[in-house]
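User: quick one, sequence for these tokens?
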């Protein structure tokens, strides 16, 4: 979706009747968003922080159920939840696929499907999206045989829709149970609500791309790098008395012309290394001088500092402002991810940071509930005890004699 306006459908490759909704005007928006996120260190770290904060302490059910434990052990749930969290934070929706047993009485598998490779079918007259098309939509249109067509359960009531399709509950439209479908694979979409969303949500963090903060941050980085690479900065002026090299050669009994030239070259290199070498920091160079008959001091070697400024420092405040704005859009306090370096920027106390982390996880409660839609469906359909949750990690104070504890958010 765009922020405003109606979504436009396109014919599905290889089909004369089916249509799908492109993800962005050119159908390449998810890949472009990923490229932009990866292109800046602040956005990348903000995404990583939000994903790990959303994961919290991992999956907990609150009940002891051997069947549920055996089922969960075969689902790679930590990886599944992190995959879902990544798509939810980046694209504001995540797609799961559930696979039922041959008799349709149990859900055997739950699998994550990457959001950038999922496209929604055009909704029917009732506003229901019937299918999810899974394929590699990057760059070129996929071949018809490469598109996986997966029936999509009702987003408002996926469990009820599944039971109706499997003939376990009456169809609300007819009041009678259907003949169980032969389908054993269904898609479940967890979509975070955004204003005006029709198909694909518009993430709230993407405002930095429309508002200019992202471009401002990137332009400063590019400009600073170009200045450091291309700007010629002369830091020292070294003045050498005209007879200096001659005296060195005379004192070292060097008379050969080639050896004299080599000794002069080596002396210049010694001066250069003394001024720029890290090992010579805070060292003292002693040089003789005399006073000429007209009263002027004549030094063997005199070093004058021309430019002691550090290049690029004039943009420090602009970088800080842009980084803070990006963190604000992601809902991340800069001190939690170290977006702005420097001692003055990290002056929060331990209590302040602990409260910031607690507030962040508390604000993720709505997204956690939506994220667990498919997993909770599996537990309910299979009759497992307990409800999957993602508890938060509560950082503790020193008087509790432990670093953290797990609490339900």
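Assistant:
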């Amino acid at each position: 979706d765009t922020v405003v306006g109606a979504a436009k459908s396109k014919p599905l490759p290889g089909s004369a009747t089916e249509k799908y909704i492109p993800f962005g005007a050119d159908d390449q928006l998810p890949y472009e968003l990923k490229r932009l996120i990866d292109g800046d260190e602040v956005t990348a770290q903000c995404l990583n922080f939000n994903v790990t904060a959303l994961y919290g302490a991992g999956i907990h059910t609150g009940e002891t159920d051997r069947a549920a434990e055996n089922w969960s052990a075969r689902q790679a749930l930590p990886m599944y939840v992190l995959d879902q969290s990544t798509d939810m934070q980046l694209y504001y929706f995540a797609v799961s696929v559930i696979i039922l047993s041959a008799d349709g009485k149990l859900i055997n598998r739950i699998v994550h499907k990457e959001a950038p490779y999922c496209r929604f079918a055009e909704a029917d007259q009732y506003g229901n999206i019937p299918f999810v098309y899974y394929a590699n939509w990057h760059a070129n249109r996929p071949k018809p045989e490469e598109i996986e067509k997966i029936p999509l359960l009702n987003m408002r009531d996926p469990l009820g829709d599944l039971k109706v399709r499997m003939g376990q509950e009456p169809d609300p439209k007819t009041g009678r149970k259907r003949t169980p479908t032969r389908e054993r694979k269904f898609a479940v979409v967890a979509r975070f609500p955004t204003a005006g969303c029709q198909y694909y949500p518009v993430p709230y963090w993407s405002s930095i791309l429309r508002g200019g903060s992202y471009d401002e941050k990137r332009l400063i980085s590019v400009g600073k790098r170009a200045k450091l690479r291309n700007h010629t900065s002369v830091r020292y002026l070294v003045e050498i008395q005209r007879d200096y090299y001659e005296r060195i050669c005379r004192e070292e009994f060097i008379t050969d012309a080639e050896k004299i030239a080599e000794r002069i070259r080596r002396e210049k290199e010694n001066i250069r290394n003394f001024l720029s070498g890290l090992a010579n920091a805070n060292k003292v160079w002693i040089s003789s001088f005399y006073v000429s008959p007209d009263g002027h001091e004549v030094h063997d070697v005199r070093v004058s500092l021309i430019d002691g400024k550090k290049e690029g420092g004039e943009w420090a405040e602009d970088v800080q402002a842009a980084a803070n704005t990006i963190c604000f859009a992601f809902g991340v306090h800069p001190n939690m991810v170290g977006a702005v370096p420097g001692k003055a920027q990290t002056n929060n106390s331990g209590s302040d940071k602990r409260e910031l982390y607690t507030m962040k996880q508390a604000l993720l409660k709505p997204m956690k509930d939506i994220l667990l839609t498919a997993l909770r469906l599996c537990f309910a359909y299979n009759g497992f005890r307990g409800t999957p949750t993602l508890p938060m990690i509560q950082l503790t104070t020193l008087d509790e004699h432990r670093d953290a504890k797990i609490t339900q958010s």
